[in-house]
Design goal:
6 helices; about 200 residues; 9 strands; Spore Coat Polysaccharide Biosynthesis Protein SpsA, Chain A; alpha/beta; seven-stranded mixed beta sheet; globular; about 30% helix
């Protein structure tokens, strides 16, 4: 467990392609997707929060702090990351790092944060990102909290793309051979594949 690291479960999106709100509350193997992600993330960080918009009482059973976006209209994961960093700057100053986890990806690696931190230490970078084969997984990353002013500046200038921001920050990348670990759920077809109704 990285005691100097705050983890955030990113659940602030609208789930438009899935066709229903709060896809992270869908049940898979008797647990919600959010619970799957929570169980994987909790041992990897010192503390965990949820970035989610809407009525926070629907998440009360998870007994974690709920941090909504600072901006309306669901502007994307970059807004979620900035919102949590801003909250932590006031409420959780002891954390030097922020680990981000997408809640539509219920099988991510159990050693994700450790590998990202090793890359940061080796490369002297301020952000590290998971990748598998040809794909980078920008919502699975470890960020220095010191990057908050840079992220705010980019957002306020109109940037919304997480991958462009990460490229500008000269991130280090960590390769994970387990491609299936990053299978994420965006559509009903993805949900069928996870349930085994279609071949992966």
């Amino acid at each position: 467990m990285a005691n100097d690291t705050l983890g955030v479960l990113l659940a602030g999106g609208q789930s438009l392609r899935m066709g229903q709100a709060d896809k992270f509350l869908l049940q898979h193997n008797n647990r919600t997707l959010l619970q799957h992600c929570l169980d994987l993330a909790r041992p990897q960080v010192g503390e965990l929060v949820i970035n989610a918009n809407g009525d926070p009482t629907r998440l009360a059973n998870y007994m974690l702090p709920i941090v909504p976006d600072l901006w309306p209209d669901h502007p994307g994961p970059l807004a979620g990351i900035i919102s949590v960093m801003s909250w932590a700057q006031k409420a959780r100053k002891r954390h030097a790092w922020l680990a981000t986890f997408a809640t539509d990806t219920p099988n991510f690696p159990a050693h994700l944060v450790l590998r990202l931190r090793q890359s940061i230490d080796a490369n002297k970078s301020l952000v590290a990102v998971a990748r598998s084969q040809e794909d980078a997984h920008y919502t699975f990353a470890l960020w220095s909290m010191s990057l908050l002013p840079n992220l705010l500046e980019a957002f306020n200038s109109g940037e919304r793309s997480l991958h462009r921001v990460i490229q500008q920050l000269k991130a280090s990348y960590v390769f994970f051979a387990e491609e299936a670990c990053f299978f994420n759920l965006n559509t009903p077809d993805d949900w069928d594949r996870l349930k085994g109704k279609q071949a992966p």
